[in-house]
Amino acid sequence: LRRLKDYGNDKMLLTVRWENGTLILIDQTKLPTRLVYVKYNKYQDVANAIKSLIVRGAPAIGVAAAFGLCLAAFQSKAKSTSGLISDLKVAYARLKSTRPTAVNLAWALDIIMKKATEGTSVDQIRNEILDRSLRMANDDIAINKRIGQNGAQLISKNEVILTHCNAGSLATVGYGTALGVIRAAKDDGKRIQVIATETRPVMQGSRLTAFELTHDGIDVRLIPDTAVGHIMYQDTISRVIVGADRVLKTGHVFNKIGTYQIAALARRHSIPFYVAAPISTFDSKSKLDDIVIEQRDRNEVIKIGNKIIAPQDVKVLNPAFDITPPELITGIITEKCVLKAPYKTNIHKLLNSNR
Amino acid sequence: LRRLKDYGNDKMLLTVRWENGTLILIDQTKLPTRLVYVKYNKYQDVANAIKSLIVRGAPAIGVAAAFGLCLAAFQSKAKSTSGLISDLKVAYARLKSTRPTAVNLAWALDIIMKKATEGTSVDQIRNEILDRSLRMANDDIAINKRIGQNGAQLISKNEVILTHCNAGSLATVGYGTALGVIRAAKDDGKRIQVIATETRPVMQGSRLTAFELTHDGIDVRLIPDTAVGHIMYQDTISRVIVGADRVLKTGHVFNKIGTYQIAALARRHSIPFYVAAPISTFDSKSKLDDIVIEQRDRNEVIKIGNKIIAPQDVKVLNPAFDITPPELITGIITEKCVLKAPYKTNIHKLLNSNR
Is there a catalytic annotation at residue B245? Predict the structure, then answer.
């Protein structure tokens, strides 16, 4: 029996799990109405699961793909290391093609392939890459727990925390980043109420965050994205915590569309605005202008399910993410420390100490 | 043949129309997929239409209800004025009960009932209240046209104007308030592009504004409510124009949820923020604390059509409207003038000159 370490909370949602030679994923397309775990024994099915958003969230996808390569190693009938590597390369290409823009996916697959090429026998390769994948999964949770602890120290006894999108268990292997901070604060005995924005157009707030927090017995209220300003105006919110897709060395944060306007509104109302992100999210190379903001499918805006909610020929702007400038960010919570301004200097120090 | 005056544009959507003794409404529940006109010959059916949101928008509801009373007068078999008034009182109560919080509904019905009680014969009452209702409908469009002209003077040759919710033809008898300004600017030969927010939770932006502007050949792009800040950050928007549910004598504007945060973001980006509202929207009596912000049905947030998009037992905050303080408002466009700060003084002057 090979399984993830138990992190002391049996009820914690584990989005990606390895058990008895099988990969188990939560089928996120069934949420919030049903919590369904699906077993995978073939890497091809894992590739389909990533492509069809059964599993989503950068860290979760990376680890799922790593386990996908493990399944490919066990599926392979190769008798030689070169035969096995050859089979793994086919699986690698297939898995990598599922979400071409996901940085974590390539990162995770490259680590596993590198490990595989170092092996000296078929069995050793199988064992080594499975161990490395299990470590990757455990590391993800461990990092999130440290982010949680670092963030929880900032939080007072009674707080109402607003979060956007889903930076929770369901975006990671488990525990989450922004929601990890909330879990850790609650575990410290603090009374936390969460306000979750529904996060149009893909509704990760309604479908995932509201589900995940309800599941864990954390007090959550769902609001339309249009109500953020009003609820801040009513003096309801004590803090904002969100995740990040990418943090530049200048401290500019790329995250789900809607993050920037929440940060701007928080500033207007003097509400602390925090980003929770592992160091793996920091991009020390790209400049602000290097990043192209992807336009997503117009159908996300004009349809919900099969229901058409706008004229089918109307023009749509559907940017996937936005940029929150460092001057709006009170702090960035990482597994090492809570970064504060001046971000350029402090991010530089953190990334260098981390090498 | 009794019909509304033609305002020079045959293609203009007329939300409420009287033709050949019949009330004709656009069935807004069928939008944006189908443009369906429904004929009404009985006041009871008009009451049902108001209740079921076939017609919505305060000015549109008021005028529809007035015509409902006209239908009741023609339906009545009474031979005496007292018999007719008695029948009209039944219809009045039925029509008024459909949307108890709509101020315009009671206002319009009271005007028609007062007119009815002044009549001296059954036929005279019928004619008088129909004339008064037709005048009310014409006045609504005429006021909107004047708002449009006053607003259009503010607008430059090329502008990208963001609007929220639907303050258009479909909320009024025709032409609209905020969208009336855009129509008037376009008729002046200016090149106007509109950005329409989808306006969760009820999606008046997607369903109505996007439809109405597409129908009229006005350039419109639809965005999720989460994209407002990002699109302002990209320096795309030259002006914001919204409608109003109620304007207090202090200049505080009550309008659809999401208006306040757009105003706050506009201020951050130095974008002029205008409200377009007829003088009938001004409330000279209420104080800020008098107004209770209604919480609407949670199902608006957790369901779209029959599709469940959030855990069914999750707590929801669904405020119907919000408050934009006068310091965020560049101007309020009325049929008489464009009000500027200091609002308290200038609103006082306007309302007194209007008596």
Answer: yes
